[in-house]
Amino acid sequence: MKKLKKTASMGSKRRRTTKQPGSSSSSSTEQSECLVAQLPQALIIDILSRLPIRSILNCKSVCKTWLHLMSDPLFVGLHMERSPANLLIQKTPFERKASTELLLVEIVEEDFSNLEIIRLFPNINFPDTDFRILNSCNGLLCLYEDSYGKSEITVHVCNPVLGEYIDIPVVNTDKKFEQHFAFGFSSGSNEYKVLQTFFPDKDITAAPCLAEIYTVGTGEWRSIGNAPFRLENLDANAFLHDSIHWIEYSSCDGFVSAFDFVLEQFKLVALPPASQIHDGVGLMYPSSVGVIKGCLFMTNGVCMEDEKFEIWVMEEYGIVESWSKKFVLSNLEVQHSISYQPLYFLSSGQILLCEDNESIGVYVPNLERIHEDKFYNGKDSFLVTVHNPSFVSLQDISKVEELKVLRKSLNRTAAAIDDNQNVRVDSCP
């Protein structure tokens, strides 16, 4: 694209000069300018779908043709298949004088010292700034508004890249019940669904634990029977193979809890046998579950004097024998109250980690320590997860829900590290 732009610029200068007899520079320039337009639309879509997210957003402003192509189902599908992992950071000011903000950070493996972030919710009038991210699926976010004692509960489904969201109607229940939600996709019916579970707040034997499903576009909840275990401790990046996954600590030892949105059934995914082995020194226990590079992973914390934890990866989904111990992080010198969440495996062999929802760093295996150059260490409360942005429009799936728009355009900001290893954000020209 840069070469074409340069050629067009040179052609403009030539047009301002006196043409010599027999000169063909004008026609050559016109041919160069029309080169991209003459390409088949399928090829243009294929090229655009391979670009980084910020480049795609810039291309939407080039012309109406490209803008239209980026809403084409072929582009949406190709981009979703190729969409690289990004970091999604939710910043919430402790004093709540400012709005909650979402930042999208591209994972550039070659250079972590120069980053560019996209402010997804800059100075917007969101229905409630006290929302939290429940989980991500196909580039869509499920957001839950903390009620803080209010009687109503609000759930949103949002595409932060397109700035679209819809409200999911929630029927309030007796306060004796806890309500938990998760969002997913059924490839069998090509539908997006919200799962809701009801659990007694205190005495779990007092009433049955129930589950309901809301299919986006229908406007109705329907019962799917009893819920065998609690839908809680949900990681935002834990959707894989039509199923959402989580660790349920009160029961189901030795398994990952899951819900299949195609079959609309709860299920269990067996953990590696080592997750329940007592080696005489410390007891290993599952502490988190998520998805990295298309595979389910879990972390095992080991309670012993030499603090460490292991990262296991299920290389073939559903096959318990395919669990493989990929990394053992040791000599972390952390307290028992501090937790680590793997975010991404870098091609260099290093691991991108979130430390106790307070900072982000890179673990260097050969040095057995976390690199001190943490590129995000903000003063506000923040939650970070891995997110694959997409161009799935809620307008195409919400038949009865009212489509709402957050803002007309995204604001790009460049982020660089200052001498104190904190992110410094400067406006882009």
Automatic annotation (TrEMBL):
InterPro entries: F-box-assoc_dom_typ1, F-box-assoc_interact_dom, F-box-like_dom_sf, F-box_dom, SCF_F-box_component. Pfam families: F-box-like, FBA_1. Residues 33-78 form the F-box domain. It comes from Salix brachista. The lineage of its organism: Eukaryota, Viridiplantae, Streptophyta, Embryophyta, Tracheophyta. Residues 1-18 have a biased composition (Basic residues). This is F-box domain-containing protein. Residues 1-31 are annotated as: Disordered. PANTHER family: BNACNNG10540D PROTEIN, F-BOX PROTEIN CPR30-LIKE.
